[in-house]
Amino acid sequence: MLQVQEQALFEWQVLTYEIPQALEFIEKNGHKFLEATPQEVEDLRYELDIHHCGDNPRDPSETIYKVPWNKAPISDQDIVLHHGFCYIRASEIKRVLPSLYYSHMLNARNNDIYEIVDNTALDEDQTIILRSSLVMALERKHLSTNRLKFNMDKIASEIWMFPPCFRLIHDHLNDVHHLKHFSRMQYYDILHGVNADCAKVERYMYSQFVEQGRVPLKKYGSYKYFIEHRFGKRGSCIEYSTPDCRVYAQTVKNQGECNGCPFSKNSAIDIEELGAKLTEWNCPDDGRFFSNFI
Question: Which coenzyme or cofactor does it need (predicted)?
């Protein structure tokens, strides 16, 4: 609660800043956003005009800043997203400050978690819970240590460390050697969230789809594209995050899709079988309530 109050106070303070004050504050805290080149502004002129929110026409001489997409909390109608950057008018730049503050607080909290991991001996049950809680943290930070990077080559032996939803999708993949589009995106997002290597994920999916004869080689190119796209390597180069599991549960609509959630009405597991399944996976009784939030 105190952190929420501090953030609200910070937002109230910085929104009173003038543009020079906001830019000075950003630079003092180790950030320096590039200005868009005249050619970029010209190429995006139409989009910038559409996204201009104001009664008067957009000032063509106003400086446009390129802010990495993950540092811009501004709603879609106020920005232009292009090649991984948000093109933000100088008059709106101070609205980036609350996001930088939140990122700083989040990284400080995650660093505390990593320090606990490095200095605490965990049993397998504790590791299951910890791995699940780190999915959201790992998506926001490229770790310098290999200790918390998931090795795709060991997925068969380390699948026990993943949350139930991922394990059920993985079981389905191994059973039929194919996943429908939405299920694949969820599978890639979770692997990206635990810092798996994109190239190794692609090789693994090739072995499942093509080598098992479920996807013709000539069609595999589109499958490979979406793997690289979810990892921020292709297209708009956005690194997709691992959303709250409720996002997956609420958006599964197509027949044959599998969101893996054992608590969802879309799950293939009957509720009577759920306890036995979690016991088979060695999920501790006192930790099973975490599964609702993984």
Answer: [4Fe-4S] cluster
What does the pLDDT average to over 186-211? 91
Does residue 162 sit in the same domain as residue 41?
Answer: no
Q: Are residues 79 and 142 in the same domain?
A: no
Pairing of strands 85-89, 64-68: antiparallel
First to last CA, the chain: 22
Tokens of 230: 């979810």
Higher-confidence position of 224 and 54: 224
Task: Decide if 250 is inside a domain.
Answer: yes
What tokens were used for 14? 């910085």
User: Domain with 39 in it: what CATH number?
Assistant: 1.20.930.80
**150 with 81, same domain?**
no
For position 173, what pLDDT does the model report?
Answer: 92
- Residue 168 token pair: 């059920």
More confident residue, 214 or 60: 214
- By the 8 A CB rule, do 209 and 223 touch? yes
**Quick one: 69 and 126 in the same domain?**
no
Q: Which range marks the domain in which residue 245 is found? A: 121-293
pTM above 0.70, yes or no: no
User: Into how many domains does the chain fold?
Assistant: 2
Question: Residue 264 and residue 274: Cα distance in Å, rounded?
Answer: 11
β-sheet bridge partners, residue 186: none
